[in-house]
Amino acid sequence: MSSNHRDLALDALLHPFQQQLLQWQPPALFLRARPSSALPAGIQATQPFAPAATALQRVGTALLDEDALPAAAFPLVLVLPPRQREEARALFAKAYAALAPGGIVVAAVANDEGAKSREADLKQLAGSVTTLSKYHCRVFWTQPHAVWNAELGAQWQGLDAPRRVVTDDAANGHFMSRPGVFAWDRVDAASKMLVAALPANLTGAVADFGAGWGYLAQQVLARCPKVTSLDLYEADARALALAQHNLALAQVTVRTHWHDVTAGVDGRFDAIVCNPPFHALGGGERPDIGRAFIAAAAQALKPKGVLWLVANRHLPYEDALATGFAQVSCVAQGGGFKIVQAVKA
Ligand SMILES: C[S@@+](CC[C@H](N)C(=O)[O-])C[C@H]1O[C@@H](n2cnc3c(N)ncnc32)[C@H](O)[C@@H]1O
Fold it and tell me: Do 109 and 170 lie in a common domain?
């Protein structure tokens, strides 16, 4: 995360250590970690989101598999809980399972991202918490000899497990998903609008930038018989694993890439479909991410290759499109979205 985009929840999480209200106790575990120069060396972490995972690895942080953490091993577990309730509760349950006897769990959440609810969740699991308000966030931690609710912990562990989701969308009746991934229990309205605008003659090598659980990619395969391969790029490892599952029966070559699209991609494509993100972890609206997706698409398309993009109408993508593409047209608008077709020179 650049210095222009301050990560207030992370700063709040580290605040009690800087004030010496809490002490670092090795080995410490940080769930959904984000990099900070204030973190001590030797911390172990989990992070399914590729840009943050790469940044952590760059500074030597060891990454662990969140679904296979050592039990009762860490005297200190830090957590930056996600916004989605079931996913956050499952993460607290994992923190508790990884906690050594007498250890503490510390968490921080922005006030406008459900701080009070997450604090209440941890309190329910651990009996009581100490709370501080800082940087428009709450940072809260458990007592060293808390009486944890083991039954609730066991129940919460499975709350974000993958499952089959059924929607009333005739084109996409059911798929594998799990709480916390983008539009986890529905088809996103913007993606649906993009699918409705897609021509059936997309041909050759196609990519989906920011593929989520695979809705757009699935629909490309269902509607465009001349597609010969499909590459899915997605930063969220949890979503990508679901996309892999949802496309397991595809008749063409499907490749999945756990990758930060804003860093550019290596492949070359005849067409790219994209519903770009415009938020980063721990921050507000970030249209620069969508613009970086557009620049990456321009660079990855072959000459005359086509980008099919859906975006919220208010997002300022016109300059990025004009820079990367020879021909740009808005082919549909509605419901607050615009569908853009952009052709590379
Ligand atoms: C608006 S969603 C679209 C998801 C999916 N295509 C759909 O239609 O349901 C954007 C996706 O981009 C992913 N994403 C966010 N930042 C990313 C990045 N830097 N690189 C790759 N994917 C990213 C998000 O995890 C999310 O799944």
Answer: no
Distance 277 CA to ligand 1 centre (A): 5
Q: For ligand 1, which residues put their CB under 6 angstroms from it?
A: 51, 182-183, 188, 191, 210-212, 215-216, 233-236, 239, 260-262, 275, 277
Let me know whether 176 and 317 are in one domain.
yes
- Pick from 202, 198, 216: which is nearest to 276 by CA? 216
Counting from 1 in the atom list of ligand 1, the atom nearest the Cα of 210 is: 12
Q: Are residues 68 and 171 in the same domain?
A: no
Residue 265: closest CA among 255, 280, 275: 255
Q: How does pLDDT run across 286-341, given as a tens digit for each residue?
A: 889 999 999 999 999 999 999 999 999 988 899 999 999 999 999 999 999 999 99
Domain count, the chain: 2
**In this structure, are residues 187 and 172 in contact, taking their beta carbons and an 8 Å threshold?**
yes
> Are 232 and 323 found together in one domain?
yes
Helix (H, G, I), strand (E, B) or coil at 234: strand
Q: Report the separation in Å between the CA atom of 76 and the middle of ligand 1, taken as the mean of its atom positions.
A: 32
In this prediction the pTM is: 0.95
Containing domain of residue 232, as a range?
A: 163-343
